[in-house]
Structure formats: C-alpha cells, structure tokens
C-alpha cells in the first residue's frame, strides 16, 4: 500500500531484495503474533480508502488482466468455495441484477452443456 506521499512520488525507497533465509527468519518471528484491534482498524480503514480511489482500481485491474491461474491455484480456490452458503439476501440481490437481462447464444449453449454434465454426474460423489 502507498501512503499519500508515496502516491505523489515522494519518499519512495528502492525495493530491497531479501534472501530466502531472511524471509524464513521474518516469517518465524511473526508466526503466532497477535495483531491489536487498533492495528486491525487502521489497516481496514487504509484498505477501504484505497478501494474508493477509482484510479487505484483501474491500475490494479490493468495489472491483473491477462494473468493466468495455475491448475493448483484453481483447485485451491475451488476447495475454499465448496460448502459456502449464500445468504438469502445475497441471492435476492443476484436475482434482481440478472433478471430480465438477455443472454447471448454462447451463454445459452454453456448453460445447456452444464445442465447435461450435471445430469450425467447426478448421484456421483462429487455432486453436492
């Protein structure tokens, strides 16, 4: 994260490269360390301030465009999402935002294909 001064190009120090050994030492020193409630609030407000900045969002979006996730990463994300329950309020919001929007032929075909796969897998262990 950048401070306001760093955003304007001031007080920017060159990036220091640390050896793997140093990274391990720092990691071990910080393991189990509790962060105070005050520090959490400071970090939270700082993060929220960044996400309100449209320029920051655009830069981050451009930086992440085109990045490919590895199969391992995709699997981790999938496992983390399994079993997650969506609240009724969220379901209503999603329904409201998508109801009445026309779907392209490609979207329709993808939905048909997914339906066929679900029907083929019905009763398998992987099915929720």
Query: What is the number of E strands?
Result: 0
Residue share in β-strands: under 5%
State the order of secondary-structure elements, H for helix, E for strand.
Answer: HHHHHHH
Query: Structural class of the secondary structure composition?
Result: mainly alpha
Instruction: Give the overall silhouette.
Output: extended
Notes on the structure:
The protein is mainly α and 128 residues long. The chain has a domain at 35-59. Helices cover 63% and strands 0% of the residues. The chain has helices at residues 4-7, 20-30, 37-52, 54-64, 71-81, 88-98, 105-121.
Question: How is this fold's topology laid out?
Answer:
Blueprint lengths: L3 H4 L12 H11 L6 H16 L1 H11 L6 H11 L6 H11 L6 H17 L7
Short description:
This protein has 128 residues and is mainly alpha-helical. The protein is built from 7 helices and no strands.
């Amino acid at each position: 994260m950048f401070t306001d001064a760093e955003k304007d190009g001031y007080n920017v120090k060159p990036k220091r490269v640390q050896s793997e050994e140093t990274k391990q030492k720092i990691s071990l020193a910080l393991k189990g360390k509790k962060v105070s409630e005050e520090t959490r609030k400071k970090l939270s407000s700082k993060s929220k301030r960044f996400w309100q900045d449209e320029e920051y969002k655009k830069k981050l979006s451009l930086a992440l465009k085109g990045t490919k996730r590895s199969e391992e990463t995709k699997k981790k994300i999938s496992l983390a999402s399994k079993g997650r329950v969506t609240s009724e309020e969220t379901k209503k919001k999603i329904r409201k935002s998508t109801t009445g929007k026309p779907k392209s032929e490609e979207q329709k075909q993808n939905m048909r294909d997914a339906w066929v796969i679900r029907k083929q897998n019905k009763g398998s262990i992987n099915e929720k």
